[in-house]
Design a protein that fits this description.
With 63 residues, the protein is α+β, with helices and mostly antiparallel strands. It has one helix spanning 11-20; strands at 43-45, 60-62. 16% of the residues lie in helices and 10% in strands. It has a two-stranded antiparallel sheet.
Length: 63
């Protein structure tokens, strides 16, 4: 299994490129271009060692 995270606007182009390269083939005689696409959210907390501003350290964000 290959997992790739891309911006949503690039999803179809990346999926097609990977399938053209042979990804998504389950059985040569029955299935190809088998893919799973799921939207993903990201949550993170800023640490002191990131080098960012100290005001953002310890804050949580979601994107």
């Amino acid at each position: 299994m290959i997992v790739v995270y891309v911006p949503i606007e690039h999803t179809e182009a990346v999926r097609l490129a990977m399938c053209e390269a042979g990804a998504g083939t389950v059985d040569d005689r029955y299935y190809d271009q088998v893919t799973y696409v799921s939207p993903v959210g990201c949550r993170y907390r800023v640490l002191d060692k990131t080098g960012g501003t100290t005001e953002s350290a310890g804050q949580e964000y979601e994107s």
